Amino acid sequence: MRDKFLNLFHKVYNLKNKIAFFPAIMGIGGALFAYIMMFLENRGISKYILDFLPELVINNTETARVILTTFIAGLISIMVFSFSMVMILLNQASSNFSPRLLPGLISNRRHQIILGVYLFTIIYCIFILVFIEPSGKKYQLPGFSVLISIIFMVYSLAAFIYFIHSISQEIQINNILLSIFTSSENKLKKIIEKEKKINATKPDTENWTSYNAKCSGYFNTISTKTLLKLSKENNIKIEIVSNKGAYCNESDILFKIDKKVDENIIERIYTNFNFSKGELIDNNYLLAFKQITEVAVKSMSPGINDPGTAINAIDYLSQLLILRVQKQDIDLVEEDNEILLVLNSINFNDLLYNVMAPLRIYCAHDIIIVRKLLALLKNLKTNAIKTEYKNSIDSEINLLLTDAKREIANESDIKKLEELGINS
């Protein structure tokens, strides 16, 4: 039962990042609220308020219908315009910056909720309009429900004004980079703080029993709390071999266990892994390095030629890499001073190479960008905690200088770069 609940949780967790998730839920909420108001109308709420505060109740059938019809038509127009603006934002981000930014922009909660507010109000107004009957001596118009629709309409207009402000901010690359950086920075800091509390070393897992992935996809999330509980209950140790955020094939080793266990326990372990066809920074901080690097590379393409954006992206990469050199290449989870879980991550050498390789290829011709990259590596080397990290940084400095010498013809520029590289 618990495993089925975990599977359902993972599916809902993935659905929440879809652009239609919150609008659909709020639209259903609009229909339910309309039925609640009709229940109250049948209990005489409009008649009761009319006796005490008649100015709050609309008591004319034609007026009520005109108001509701106008609201429905106007909100549909606003909703179409807002959705079009979201599509323009996504198209511009894809063409000018990187298609990899789209999942993060689509999952923007504020825009989803604003579209949900429109849908909530539209559906509510439609249901109230349907409930209005022809005038009769004993019939009481649902005037209070119409008043509520006016309040919702005012709130929708306020949401539309906020949406215009938000979309104008979201479309700016500086804010996109800041959002990516902040999300990744927060996750990295939490991981580093947890790592400082662990003094144990990684156990030898070479002879542990291996188990392959059952499906292909991006390894997004894992329930470490449940796995830790399974480890304690069954007196086993688990190593997650696949890197979080990496694409797993069915033939790849997913995890290892230090001893033979029942098939039922193996199946329970499998249920704690979540695979998908997309990636989000909320699930994996490493994606930020990939996204920011792609923004920098795209900005230096001949069609865009925006060195300023590349410099901003390199600044954010510098801060994230400084955080990364403060952590180990693996994550250990312990209980009672005993390591029960080992979670592998991409090692620093590969991460730095994946960041620097495309930047070297596309930016080696620009003396300003090369100097910026050398400054990044110099600062990174100062903050590195391990000797192998420093060796990787030295290797990247040499590779960057080699590519720059090939692309830059001016000997004076090359001399300045060499001096900066030697001092790194």
From TrEMBL:
A family per Pfam: DUF2254
Q: Which residues cross the membrane?
A: 20-40, 66-93, 113-132, 144-164
Does Ribosomal protein count among this protein's keywords?
Answer: no
Which InterPro entries has this protein been placed in?
DUF2254_membrane
The protein's superkingdom reads: Bacteria
Q: Which UniProt keywords apply?
A: Membrane, Transmembrane, Transmembrane helix
Q: What is this protein called?
A: DUF2254 domain-containing protein
Gene source species:
Polaribacter aestuariivivens
